[in-house]
Write a structure and sequence with these properties.
By secondary structure, the protein is α+β, with helices and mostly antiparallel strands. It contains 4 helices and 14 strands. It has helices at 132-150, 163-182, 185-188, 227-236; strands at 4-8, 11-15, 36-45, 51-55, 61-65, 72-78, 84-87, 93-97, 103-105, 114-123, 155-159, 193-198, 203-207, 210-215. The strands form 2 sheets. Strands 3-4-5-6-7-8-9-10 form an 8-stranded antiparallel beta barrel. A 6-stranded mixed sheet has the order 1-2-11-12-14-13. β9 and β10 form a beta hairpin. α1 runs parallel beside α2 and α2 (163-182) crosses α4 (227-236). The longest helix is centred in the last third of the chain and has 20 residues, at 163-182. It starts with a strand and ends with a helix. Mean pLDDT is 88; it is low at 1-10 and 18-23.
Length: 238
């Protein structure tokens, strides 16, 4: 049975129901729909085992590995010995750029780093618009999934901010799913409510059975917490 509860003006509380399939929200990043700008560059690994986009059109910058299901917001820091290192919101090093123009990428399959080279301009990392019905569907799928994990009725509360911002609300729900899947099962057991709110900066907090995810509306992919940050919040019971 599908149950929708109106939580507030422009918002929904969605309870678990029957699951539905998801479309790939990243499929068009390699197509022609997005703008190609000098601030967005494709890098290719020297071992030819993949490529990624570094998009500096926003602050923080964005990094998306071709075929991945997450766009990372990365923050520029000074690197020891010169140059700069780009870190995620959990301080994981993703990319190091030397003063001489060299670049080293740190993917999960090469934690010690692999040399990469720029190979050309890329499309900016912008999510396709999501209407309110699609947002409801994604929220319902998350409620279904978590209910199956912890065997409790789980409610997902999400505002509706319009198609452009809804795209990043939907993405935040997908990241919540990844974070929950990777979190300690003991921590997830008491999860009852997943609530997405709008705020000044991205954040994730877990307390009293409620996982509250804050997104900075209008900042795109740069305005929501990563799946790693969400997982850490759950495991720490913040």
């Amino acid at each position: 049975m599908i149950v929708f509860l109106l939580a507030a003006a422009g918002a929904w509380a969605v309870l678990a129901s029957d699951g539905l399939g998801q479309q790939n929200p990243f499929s068009r990043l390699t197509g022609r729909e997005q703008t190609v700008e000098a601030s967005a560059v494709w890098y290719e690994r020297a071992d030819r085992r993949g490529r990624f986009v570094l998009d500096r059109s926003s602050s923080p910058a964005l990094l998306w590995q071709d075929g991945a299901n997450e766009v990372y917001a990365v923050y520029v820091n000074r690197a020891s010995g010169g140059g700069e290192v780009l870190l995620t919101d959990t301080d994981r090093a993703m990319l190091r750029l030397s003063n001489l123009g060299g670049a080293t990428f740190f993917p999960p399959d090469a934690p010690d780093g692999v040399i990469v080279e720029p190979i050309g301009p890329a499309h900016t990392l912008v999510a396709p618009p999501v209407n309110s019905q699609e947002l409801q569907r994604i929220a319902r799928e998350l409620a279904d999934s978590v209910t199956r994990i912890n065997r409790n009725q789980v409610t997902v509360e999400v505002p509706s901010l319009g198609p452009s911002d809804n795209a990043y609300l939907a993405d935040t729900l997908r990241l919540a799913q990844i974070g929950i899947d990777e979190a300690n099962r003991r921590s997830v057991r008491g999860l009852e409510t997943i609530r997405v709110v709008s705020g000044a900066r991205a954040d994730a907090r877990y307390s009293g059975g409620t996982l509250e995810l804050t997104i900075a509306a209008g900042r795109g992919y740069a305005g929501r917490p990563s799946s790693d940050f969400i997982r850490r919040a759950i495991d720490r019971g913040r």
